[in-house]
Amino acid sequence: MEWRWNFSQAALKVKSSAIRDLLKLTQQPDVISFAGGLPAPELFPVEGIMEASDYVLKHEGQFALQYSTTEGYRLLRRFLAKRMTQKGIVVDEDEILITGGSQQGLDLLGRLFLEEGDWIISAQPTYVGAIQAFNAYGVKFHTIPLDKDGIKVDLIEEAIKEKNPKFIYVIPTFQNPGGVTLSVERRKKLVEIARRYQVPIVEDDPYSELRYEGEDLPTLKALGSDVVILLGTFSKIVSPGLRTAWVAAAAPVIEKLIKLKQGADLHTNTFAQYILHQFLKGGGLDKHIKILREEYGQRRRVMLEALRENFPPKVKWTSPQGGLFLWVELPSGADATALLSEAVKEKVAYVPGPAFFPNGGGENTLRLNFSNASPKLIREGVKRLAKVFSAKIG
Ligand SMILES: Cc1ncc(COP(=O)(O)O)c(C=O)c1O
What we know:
The chain is of the alpha/beta class. The protein folds into 2 domains: about 10-45 and about 285-394, Aspartate Aminotransferase, domain 1; about 45-285, Type I PLP-dependent aspartate aminotransferase-like (Major domain) (Aspartate Aminotransferase, domain 2, 3-Layer(aba) Sandwich). The protein contains 14 helices and 14 strands. It has helices at about 10-15, 20-25, 45-65, 75-85, 100-115, 130-135, 155-165, 185-195, 220-225, 250-265, 270-280, 285-310, 335-345, 375-394; strands at about 30-35, 95-100, 120-125, 140-145, 150, 170, 200-205, 230-235, 245-250, 315, 325-330, 350, 350, 365-370. The strands form 3 sheets. An 8-stranded mixed beta sheet has the order 2-9-8-7-6-3-4-5, sandwiched between helices. Strands 10-11-14-13 form a 4-stranded antiparallel beta sheet. Strands 1-12 form a two-stranded parallel sheet. The longest helix has 27 residues, at about 285-310. It is globular and about 60 Å long. Bound molecules: pyridoxal-5'-phosphate (PLP). Pyridoxal-5'-phosphate binds next to α5.
């Protein structure tokens, strides 16, 4: 007899993310993958993490291997508060919650704010993991387009009046997947609107430390600590495998998130938090970020050069000043999803744009990652892609 699982309505609605499915397809070793958002594995600070973990086991093993508090290791939160304060953010260590990746932060914010049928405002395209996390709560996305200066903030006020959204979800700096950065003027305007209408902003910021060109911009959190919930993560600047990230928000938000997290996993991995703290305390972070900026900056240059040299003239792309991705627009009518099967035959992969559109669309767009493959493979991969695109779209 076949068992009939009595899954909840919410579980029945959850779909696997297109990225996860695609990653499986492109994980064959001979495929040059521009698909994932993976850091370069050869750059992981293995030595530094080894030294930190040896130290922790020798001197703090009895704490590091024990259960710990839900809000996270106090010294790690203190380190983060200090670092954020240096960047102009008004935040206290008690306004920080350590999470199992920013992905968990997104899910917990969903639990905290969202009910079936609620509206949220986001850019389109936007981070596929956020679409997945918020969709689990049955929400509707009111999407706002991006241009070269980020999300079109002038459309947000009308959207708030019309939809009464629970929050505005944005990735202002080196947006995933668009690669664009919100201008300072728009940042100020967005914070002003959020304050006026009392709609919180969720600022997802995994990439601002990975700038290769231009000047640092203030985070939304620095411009409006009261209305902004900031998500930061060690995934792209140290290691995603440690699954350690943080939420910085006003105390009442953090207090609720702590209670919700307690039910989800009690606390983030204690050992990982101790190791990270030890690594950071020794000055490992800034040294490592410097290495990443140099190497990823070079990979970005190589990819942009290869695109200019090889791609057909009708194809356009963004030129990000940082982060891990750039966004490609094929001529209208082209189908990036269908073209992916051709690309995989040529042993190269990317993520088709529709994955990043919560309400459909973006058929002629795609995302390219430039952090994971070496410069040599980036050149080769772009040539292979150019061959596919030239043959199919001219
Ligand atoms: C915009 C954005 N938010 C959140 C995440 C998830 O990060 P974490 O590894 O901290 O869960 C990513 C990962 O790619 C991302 O690009």
